[in-house]
Amino acid sequence: MTKPLLKPMYPTLISNMIAKRNDEAVNEFERSFNCRVLEIFADNRRLNVEELKHDSEEFLKSLKTEFIWGETGKTKYVPITRLLKLLKNSPQSIKDLLPHKTVTTLVKITNFNLAIDITLIEELVKTVIHAEETYVKLLPYAENGTEISSYGLQDFVSAHYVPQMIEEPERADYYSAYAVGIIFFLLDSRRRENVYLKDLLSSTLLMHLELCIHAENNCLETPDIDVFTVAQFRNTLYEFRCLDTDRNGVLSPTEMTFFREGLFNAVFIQRVFEISMVYESGCLDFKAFVDLVAAIRFRHTMASAKYHFEAFDFKGDGVLDEDEIRTAAQALPEYAPSDDNVHIDIVTGELKDMLRLNKNGVSSKDFVNNRMNSTFTGFLSNYSDFLKYERREQ
C-alpha cells in the first residue's frame, strides 16, 4: 500500500480540526482506513454494500442520540463508554468498521475527555462506503480485479462523472484525460500504464472529484482540493492553448519559455522536457503539461518531491549534490533580474542548508522525507516562491 499523498485524507473534514490533531494519531487513522480498503480485495469476501449502508445509517442515527456538546457548544462528541455500548449491540459490519484499535486512535485524535468527535466517525463511515461502492463501479473498466489502466479510468470518468456535471467541460475527453492525469501523478504513477485499485480507493481522489462536481453543480464553496473542478480544468487548458502558438496540440521548448510569464527557472523548464514523455519532435503533450501543473500545485506531496528531484538530478544518478544545485541556481538571475541580492554562492549555501546536504549529496529517499523539500523546490524553480522566501523576515 502506498503512503497517503494528500492531507487531509478524508476530504470533507474541516481543516482547522485537523490542525489540532497529532501527526502520529492521524497516521494511525490513515493506516486503519487503508487496512479497511484492503479488506475489499480479500478472497471469498461476502459483503452486501446495501446492507452496510443500511446498518451504517441506523448506527449513525443511534450515535447522534448519545452525544455531548463540547466546551464551545459547537462540536458533538460521543463518550467512549456510550460508543462501546452501541457497538456491542451493532451488526458485525459496524463492529468490523470500528474495531478497538480504530476507536482508540479516534480518541487520541479528538483529545477531549475520553470522547470522540462524531464528525470523524461519520467521515470514516462515509469514506468506507464510498470505497466499497466505487470498487464495484470500477470493476467493468479495470484490467483485472486489482489494477486499472489510464485509458480504463478515463472511460470510467467519462461514463460516471462527466454526465453528472450541469455545465459540461468544453472538451469532455480532455477533461477526463486531465482528471486521470492528476490522479496518476498524485499516485506517483505518471510513467505507469496502470494503477492499483487499492491505492486509488485509499487515496480518496475520486471522492474529491465527486465533491468538486457537487460544489459546482450547486454553486457551493469549492473544496480545499479543487483541482477537479471544471473551472480549474478550463484554466489549465486555456494556459496550454495560449502557449501553443503553433496550434499543433503540443508545446515546444521555445513555447514553454513563456510558461507563467517566463518567471520559472529556464534550467528547470528544460529538464521538464527531459524527464517527461515527449513526441519525436521533442514537444510536450497535454498530459505532460498536466504533470507539470500538478507538480507545482501539489508541491507538498511525495509525488511532486520525486518529480522535482528528478528534474534537478542532472546526472541521473539518484543523488542531488552541490554541483547540481549550483547549476540550477545559475539561472536565478535570469528570472529574478530586478533582485540585486542573487549571489550564486550565497544561494547555493542556503539551498544546501535547507537539505542539510553533506559531501555525498542527498538521495531521492532522503529528499522526499525532508520537510524542507517543497521550500527548496519552490525557491529554485520559480520567481514567486523565491521572492516569498527571500522576504520571509521582512
From TrEMBL:
InterPro entries: EF-hand-dom_pair (IPR011992), EF_Hand_1_Ca_BS (IPR018247), EF_hand_dom (IPR002048), PPP2R3C (IPR039865). Keywords: Calcium, Cytoplasm. GO terms for molecular function: calcium ion binding. It comes from the Eukaryota. GO terms for biological process: cortical cytoskeleton organization; microtubule cytoskeleton organization; regulation of dephosphorylation. It holds the Pfam family EF-hand_5. Residues 300-335 form the EF-hand domain. The keyword Cytoplasm applies. It is found in: Cytoplasm. One of its GO terms (cellular component) is cytoplasm. PANTHER family: SERINE/THREONINE-PROTEIN PHOSPHATASE 2A REGULATORY SUBUNIT B'' SUBUNIT GAMMA, SERINE_THREONINE-PROTEIN PHOSPHATASE 2A REGULATORY SUBUNIT B'' SUBUNIT GAMMA. This is EF-hand domain-containing protein. It comes from Caenorhabditis nigoni.
